[in-house]
């Protein structure tokens, strides 16, 4: 299991190339697609720290869903741009995870957008809120760069 001392996981970066399907009629990335890029980066971060979402659903009976997003769009990305999507776990609570994320254009290091995403833990069968399993939470807490909810 990776540890929080691994610098690659404190701020995790996932590469994305902009394809034609990602762009709108103006030739820039359609705004909602940045959320897809961010989702992929969070999923790959979770995989890198040792958890796959399908395994969590099948073996633990939990899944994650976006509860809240705030996002600022700062510069356009265009067809064939190479982007770096960063994910940083800021807070791990009893039933949620909060991430700060950025999408950077590699060619000039411009920040295309940045956002904060709160992920809720849900029971896979009912889609109702669920507490993060204690062992999972204790393994994720060291990666959080901000204050964490106390376990109760």
UniProtKB/TrEMBL annotation:
<dbReference type="InterPro" id="IPR050563">
    <property type="entry name" value="4-hydroxybenzoyl-CoA_TE"/>
</dbReference>
<dbReference type="InterPro" id="IPR029069">
    <property type="entry name" value="HotDog_dom_sf"/>
</dbReference>
<dbReference type="InterPro" id="IPR006684">
    <property type="entry name" value="YbgC/YbaW"/>
</dbReference>
<protein>
    <submittedName>
        <fullName>Acyl-CoA thioester hydrolase</fullName>
    </submittedName>
</protein>
<comment type="similarity">
    <text>Belongs to the 4-hydroxybenzoyl-CoA thioesterase family.</text>
</comment>
<dbReference type="GO" id="GO:0047617">
    <property type="term" value="F:fatty acyl-CoA hydrolase activity"/>
</dbReference>
<dbReference type="Pfam" id="PF13279">
    <property type="entry name" value="4HBT_2"/>
</dbReference>
<dbReference type="InterPro" id="IPR014166">
    <property type="entry name" value="Tol-Pal_acyl-CoA_thioesterase"/>
</dbReference>
<keyword id="KW-0378">Hydrolase</keyword>
């Amino acid at each position: 299991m990776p540890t929080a001392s691994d610098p690659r996981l404190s701020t995790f970066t996932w590469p994305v190339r902009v394809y034609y399907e990602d762009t709108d009629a103006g030739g820039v990335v359609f705004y909602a697609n940045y959320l897809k890029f961010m989702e992929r980066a969070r999923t790959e971060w979770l995989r890198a720290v040792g958890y796959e979402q399908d395994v969590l659903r099948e073996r633990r009976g939990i899944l994650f869903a976006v509860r809240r997003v705030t996002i600022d769009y700062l510069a356009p990305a265009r067809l064939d741009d190479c982007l770096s999507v960063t994910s940083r776990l800021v807070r791990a609570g009893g039933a949620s995870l909060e991430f700060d994320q950025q999408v950077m254009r590699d060619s000039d290091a411009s920040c295309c957008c940045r956002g904060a995403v709160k992920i809720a833990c849900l029971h896979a069968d009912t889609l109702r809120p669920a507490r993060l399993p204690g062992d999972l939470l204790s393994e994720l807490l060291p990666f959080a760069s901000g204050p964490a909810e106390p376990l109760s």
